[in-house]
Design brief:
6-stranded parallel sheet; 4-stranded antiparallel sheet; alpha/beta
């Protein structure tokens, strides 16, 4: 039997494919069970995280195993095999071991060096053990992967090369600034109460947020996490739990939102976020009005209309009074509505109204371009009701987007937050896709090379141990056969020489045993050494052939060894 892994990750597939291929807990269980039920595989485990889906199996046929595992992944992910195949990778035997060890060390993570993957590998092994789909090979493999990962983190500075996905995501929200300075005093909403959400809540608490609100479909789990945050020695923060139904209201009060649930659909739509931002804006406007009423006449600041100030109105081609009431629309957001920038939208409006355009712009127009303009204007008209042109447009400066008032971190796969939120003014969204792009440019630490050497050494040691273990049942069967031969010959000698006393019989038995042991010692030690070397798997077959060992006897020894391993294995 041989180790085979078939999978896809952020390195081989776009986020859109990973999102569609993601597996919930029930689907992972069914995939593992169906894999061991398939003909080529006898053991199976699945490693599914937010940026990878991998199926590990012990198979007896390579090509049949690849075909079967690929088909099963496609069936359970819901992505067609033809569509999924270009993104799949396959690792076999030592390469498969090398891959898992690299994953365990964080070398294959989106954020190099992050340690959260160790917990996910541990969960994967526990699931396979609970389902009785992990035999000797996968138990040894995953347990050794955990040891290798811990060794890499303890013996090197790989932790300096990266951090958890949560920390990296918060750094992206902080736009390169210190997370502690950015988070201090903010109110956080964490949606979900699983391992990733719990890590996010604890990280935010340690970073200095003023409050953490936890929302989860199972309210008891949200309460438990909130209680841990409140009572923890290093995370003492004001925390409370709310049901999922309260999320829309909490959005209007939160400054930072982290979402990581197992939902198959969107948890936060663009509309719900837009409404939350609008609610925040109304609240800020009311507060500003109160401040203005208390201020002396002539000294109060000019009120801000919607998300745009007077500077935005000066050169805007739209009738602001007509568009401000439109849900999700803002002066800064008209590019998102029409798909065009503000200056181009002005020129489009003038063109529709029959206004003259700059000749250079006219020279660049084409029938295809006109069609695109009409489509863009139709989209705008559908949103705001009309395109009320106020004046002939003049060259305008690009108006920068306002500073974000709401920060969103989506760590779920499939995504929890609508990607269209990217286009909303006053909102900053960081999700798996943007994290993948940001991490691709992150510098690699020098410690990574040291971790790679550790991985290579551990792969060689694991392979040698597995090959040596592979021949052990054959050696045990050989010695058992030799002991049976000795016992048979001693019994025959007792029948032929009945006059021997017990002392004499003992001397003869010891002499025969010493002869057999000396004859077998050198060959068995040497065959174990040879079997541990690359390509040494054939020595077990040679030994069985040379001594005419019964295959069933060897198999029985293997089963006995595996049964002993299970009894000795910690729960």
């Amino acid at each position: 039997m041989s180790l085979l892994v078939v999978g896809l990750s952020h390195r081989s597939a776009p986020v859109s494919v990973l999102e569609r291929a993601s597996l919930n807990a029930d689907a992972q269980v069914k995939l593992v069970q169906d894999t061991v039920a398939a003909e080529p595989a006898t053991e199976a485990a699945v490693l599914a995280t937010c940026n990878r889906i991998e199926l590990y199996a012990d198979v007896d046929k390579f090509h049949a195993g690849v075909a079967e595992l690929s088909t099963l992944l496609a069936q359970h992910s819901g992505v067609g095999l033809e569509e999924l195949t270009p993104y799949l990778y396959v690792h076999y035997e030592d390469r498969a071991v090398h891959h898992l060890f690299s994953v365990a060390c964080g070398l294959d993570s989106m954020v190099v060096g992050e340690g959260q993957i160790l917990g996910q590998i541990k969960d994967s092994l526990a699931r396979a053990q609970e389902l009785h789909t992990a035999g000797r090979l996968l138990n040894d493999l995953f347990q050794q992967a955990l040891r290798v990962g811990k060794r890499a983190h303890s013996e090197t500075g790989i932790d300096r090369a990266g951090q958890s996905l949560v920390t990296f995501g918060l750094e992206q929200l902080a736009v390169g600034g210190a997370v502690e300075e950015w988070a201090a005093g903010r109110k956080a909403l964490v949606i979900g109460a699983g391992s990733m959400s719990s890590l996010a809540a604890a990280t935010l608490a340690r970073a200095g947020v003023a409050e953490v609100v936890v929302a989860n479909r199972t309210f008891e789990r949200a309460e438990r996490l909130a209680r841990i945050l409140t009572e923890g020695d290093d995370t003492a923060v004001s925390a409370r739990a709310v049901p999922m139904a309260a999320v829309p209201d909490e959005l209007t009060r939160a400054d930072v939102v982290v979402s990581c649930t197992g939902a198959t659909g969107l948890v936060l739509t663009a509309e719900s976020v837009a409404q939350a931002v609008e609610g925040r804006t109304r609240g800020d406007a009311a507060e500003a009005a109160d401040d203005g009423a208390r201020a002396s006449a002539g000294t109060a600041p000019a009120p801000v209309t919607g998300t745009a100030g007077a500077a935005a109105e000066e050169n805007c081609p739209l009738d602001l009074a007509a568009v401000q009431g439109s849900t999700g629309f803002s002066v800064h957001g008209e590019a998102a509505v029409a798909g065009l920038d503000a200056a181009t939208l002005e020129q489009h409006g003038a063109w529709v109204a029959g206004g003259a355009m700059d000749r250079r712009e006219t020279a660049r127009r084409s029938p295809e371009g006109d069609a695109e303009l009409i489509t863009a204007l139709a989209a705008t008209a559908a949103t705001v009701g009309r395109i009320p042109e106020l004046r002939r447009p003049e060259p305008v400066a690009v108006i920068p987007r306002p500073a974000p008032a709401l920060f969103l971190l989506d760590l779920a796969m499939p995504r929890d937050i609508d990607a269209a939120v990217h286009r909303l003014a006053g909102v900053r969204l960081v999700d798996i896709e943007s994290l993948a792009g940001a991490s691709a440019d992150a510098p690699m630490a020098a410690d990574v090379d040291q971790v790679r050497r550790i991985v290579s050494d551990e792969v060689a040691a694991f392979g040698a141990a597995q090959r040596a273990a592979h021949i052990t049942p054959t050696v045990v069967a050989l010695r058992t056969m030799a002991a049976d031969v000795v016992a048979s010959e001693i019994a025959r000698l007792d029948g032929r020489l009945p006059g021997l006393d017990e002392r004499q019989r003992g001397e003869i038995r010891q002499a025969v045993h010493r002869v057999v042991d000396k004859l077998l010692h050198a060959p068995t030690v040497r065959v174990k050494q040879l079997a541990a070397e690359p390509g040494g798997a054939g020595y077990a077959d040679a030994l069985r052939t040379l001594f005419d060992l019964d295959p069933e006897t060897v198999a029985a020894v293997s089963r006995a060894v595996e049964s002993t391993d299970k009894k000795d294995r910690p729960a």
